[in-house]
Amino acid sequence: MYFILFYIMIVFMFMYLLVLFMKKIPNLNVIIGNLIMIILWLNLPWFNWIEWINIFCNLSFNKYSYGLMMLTMWIFGLIFMSLNMGTHCLLMNLMLMISLMLVFMSMNLLVFYLFYEFGLLLIFYMVVKWGYSENRWLSGFYLMFYTMIFSLPMLYIIYYLYWLSSSLNFMLMEMMNLKLNLLLFIYLLMSFLVKIPIYLFHGWLLKAHVEAPYYGSMILASIMLKLGGYGMLRLMFIYKNEFMFFQKFIIIINSFGILILSLMCLSQFDMKSIIAISSIVHMGIMIMSMMTFFDISIMGGYLMMISHGLSSSGLFFLVNVIYSQTNSRLMFVNKGMINFMPSMSLLWFMLCSSNMGSPVSLNLISEVMLIIGLVSWMKFLMLILILYCLFSFIYSIYLFMFINHGKIFLVFKIKNGLLVEYFILMMHWIPLNLMFLKLYFI
C-alpha cells in the first residue's frame, strides 16, 4: 500500500549508486530522466479523490498534493534529460527532488517544515555555486535572509502548536478547530506568503531568478513557489477564522500588486526578469482568489499551480536555449530570432500564448475559475481583473515579439536547436494543453 514511498527510496538509492560507482556511463542524465518518467506513469493509476490515502510514517497524499507530486517528478525528469554537468550537480538535483516530494507527502507540520527549509538550502547552494555572475552571492543572501526572518519564528510557533494540541498531524489539526493568537498567525502566514511570494516581499525572487542557472530557475518557478501555496492551502483548512480576518487585507494588497507588477514587465529588458515578474503576478491572482474560500477558487488555485509550473518552466528553458548560443539575456541583443531558429520561434509563441491564458491551455481554465470566485465575492473586482487580463496579454506578446521579430544585431550564426531541446519543450506544452480533457475529476 505504500509503494510511492518505496519507489522513491529505491530510485534514489539506485541513482546514487549510479552516480558514485558508474560515472563513465554515457548519457547518465537521460537514463535518470527516463526512470523518473516511468515511475511517474506507474503511479498514475493510484490517483483518487479520497481525502487522505496510504498514510504511513507521517507520509501520505491527497487530492491537493498528488498533482504537485506529479509536477515535481515531471519537471525534474525533463531537467535531468537536459543536464550536461557533472555528477555533483546531478546529485544535488536528486536530493532536491526527494526533499520536495517529501514536502508534498508529509502529513506532519514539523516534517513539512524540515523538508521545506532543506529544499531552500539546496536552492541557495545552487544559486551561489552555479550562478551566472558575481552577483549570485547577493542573490543567494537575499533568498536566505528573506526566508530566515520568518522561518525561525515559524519553528517556535510549530512547537507552540504542539503544546496546544498535542499533535501536528494535518488530518487531526483540521478536525480540532484550533485557535491561534493573531500576531503568531501573522508570522505563520507570512512564512508562506514570502515564499509564494506576495507583492512587497518579492525582491528575493527576482534576484534569485536572474542569477540562478536555468535548472535552478525552472525548479524555483515550477515547484518552489508552489510550496508556499500548498502550505497556505493546508493552513486554510486548519485556521479558517483567522484567514477570514485577514482576507480583505491580502486581497487589496494583491489587487494593486498584480497591476503594478504587470506594468513593470513592460519596462524590463532581461528575458528572465519578465518571466520572473509574471510568475509573481500569477501567484498574486491565485492568492487573491483562494482567500475567498469558494470551492471553485481553491480548485482554480490548485490548477493554476500546475499550469503555471509547466508554462514558466518551459519559458525559462527557452531563455537558456538562446543564452547558451548568444551569451546574453538582453532583449535588445536577441532580436530577429525567427530568422535563426524558426522552429524554436513557434515554441516561443506556443508557450507565451499558454502563459497568457489562451485556449485550450490549463492556464485559461484556472484563470476563469479564479476570476469567477473573485467576482462572486465582490463585483467591483471585475475592473481590476479586466486590466489584469489585458496586461497579461500585452507583456506575453511583448516578450514574444521583441525576441523573435525586429532588426538583427547579431553577426554570428545561431543554430536552430538540438532535438532533445525540442522534446523537453514539447513535454512542457503537451500536458499543459491536454489536461482540459480530464477536468471531470474536479
Automatic annotation (TrEMBL):
Catalyzed chemical reaction(s): a ubiquinone + NADH + 5 H(+)(in) = a ubiquinol + NAD(+) + 4 H(+)(out)
PANTHER family in UniProt: NADH-UBIQUINONE OXIDOREDUCTASE CHAIN 4
Listed name of the protein: NADH-ubiquinone oxidoreductase chain 4
Top EC category: translocase
InterPro entries in the cross-refs: NADH_UbQ_OxRdtase, ND/Mrp_TM
Alphabetical keyword list: Electron transport, Membrane, Mitochondrion, NAD, Respiratory chain, Translocase, Transmembrane, Transmembrane helix, Transport, Ubiquinone
EC number: 7.1.1.2
Domain of life: Eukaryota
Domain NADH:quinone oxidoreductase/Mrp antiporter transmembrane: 106-386
